Amino acid sequence: MSIALEIFIQQAIIGLTIGSYLALIALGYTMVYGIIGLINFAHGDIFAFGFFASLTIFGFFAPSQPFGAVGLLVLLPLVLLLTMLLAGGLNTAIYRIAYRPLRHAPRLAPLITAVGVSFALEALFAVWQGPSQINYPRYFPDVNILSDWLGLDTFIILSTKDLFLFAVTIPLMIGLTVFVERTRLGKAMRACAQDREAAALVGINVDKVITTTFFIGGALAGAAGLVWGLYINSGRFLMGFEAGLLAFTAAVVGGIGNIRGAVLGAFIIGMLKAMSDLYISGEWTRIVIFGALILLLVFKPSGILGASEAPEKL
Fold this sequence. Notes:
Number of domains: 1
CATH class: Mainly Alpha
Strand content: under 5%
Strand order of the largest sheet: 1-2
Helix content: over 70%
Radius of gyration: 20 Å
CATH topology: ABC transporter involved in vitamin B12 uptake, BtuC
Structural class: mainly alpha
Number of helices: 12
Largest sheet: 2 strands, antiparallel
């Protein structure tokens, strides 16, 4: 295998990892927009909250040094569950306090409120963990599977961290899809996405559906924050802004309001970012991503999988 091909494969792996965590964040954007038509600009900060909350929980169990493999296998699922519950609870509280009273207000009011909530959360994170770069301890082992375990002589790095990221994000995405398509509550969510008033007339508790949507979206974003912390091992209080912006872009590219579209858009953005960083320049990556977004919206305003007649369809 040529070196150029190996480098391309390496960037493809990086693109998939970026797309995986962006997809978890993008799903929250697309679910909330699909049901109530709100662009929750504070959603990226729920991702940052997952980062800080999981760091705090890990620190409670291992304040000075990482734990062993057995301890990690036992503790990691617990920390993931607690982080998702806390992030989902925070997102639900934001909805009940800041968004629900404005459901019948002009569209500009909840939009500005979402921006205000985002700034408030970022300020809270700066007070909580400080304004400087935060180091996330290397709790998860980083081993190159291809060279260290399989003994292959290659430039490609496929690490245990990559597998961990895929092992967390992909089942969560599949689980959400199955939940929305197969469960009673998932069907209620789709009904509310199509027509909230008609759903209420047939006995669906619309407020319960919306609350559940915010909880699930927040839980997924919290999981993404934990995964990011264990994978990158660093972050800062403003990290939710860029991640949220990219995830929102992914949701728009795929067709905001469409779950499969959000996942597809996330992997497209991830691949664009990885390939642009290598073959063009990291300085041009944002120009490439948002330039591609503009071109797509010019020719297909509803996104790749979005429905032109009803872009809010879940």
